[in-house]
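Support request, please re-run this one:
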Amino acid sequence: MKQIEFERWEPDAENPRRLTYAGQRTAEDVFHELEAQLDSVGYLPNEYFIMDWRWEHGRQIPKGADFFCKTDYGGSEGIYLDVYLEWQEGDKPKKECFITGKTLGESGADLDRMFLISSAITKAFRGDNSVHARYMVVGGQSEPAETMSLNLSPDEQRLVAQALAEQRIRLGPQAEGEEKLLRRMVGNVTEYMDAAGLADRLDEHDRDLLTQHDGEQETAPVMGGMQL
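Re-run finished. Output below.
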């Protein structure tokens, strides 16, 4: 994700290759950029995602402001995600709600998804722990690959499982990685192949191997949230 700044930076008049501080951004600009970025990756809460009215009409993000997210069940229904801004005003600390998101669902998966959205917001404002262009080190080595969590809708789960099953059939016993990932999504691969109408495309040896592997499973399947 592209890092979202609270500040404005412009090329220096004397040295265009250098960026200089040019003031604070308006809260509305920051909110709309965040909203578009979350929407582009399917991470908007399904009920609403709104900016607090106190930040309207061109109010700027306070200089030196930081943020934090709070995610919890609502008092009556749904799950809420609140984004707060906090800063110093003179010698007094200030804190105000900036953005509120809500989902009507109250399941464990709904709560997990709201925490994933909170994580996406943190990455958007922090820059996903990447080095900003203003401080980039030429010739620096890239960081090692990390795991990634995906929250999939039921339709997306079926699509991914079907693609993995087709790949498992094409590669046979050599599809070790595909089979492990498919097993994490659906649990019993043999039963999934039967239900999906794919069992007749498996030879007897392959079917026996899948049945043997299914009997060795010790953990419950993961549906909805996938860690890659």
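The longest strand covers residues 92-103. The chain has six helices and eight strands.
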